[in-house]
Write a structure and sequence with these properties.
The chain contains no helices and 4 strands. With 51 residues, the protein is mostly beta strands.
Length: 51
């Protein structure tokens, strides 16, 4: 069962990427280096928590 979620930039807080993962294989949050168009550089993006 795949789960979709947003990736949020840790520098500016913009939600840039919609990603999915297999929750069974990776139960912890994802942290990836991705390009942020607002910052115009590669920054750390974290999985956004659901409220």
């Amino acid at each position: 069962m795949r789960q979709t979620f947003l990736m949020k930039c840790t520098v500016c807080g913009a939600e840039n990427y919609l990603t999915e993962k297999e929750k069974k294989n990776t139960p912890d949050r994802l942290e990836l280096m991705k390009f942020c168009p607002k910052c115009r550089k590669q920054t750390l993006h974290k999985e956004k928590t659901k409220k």
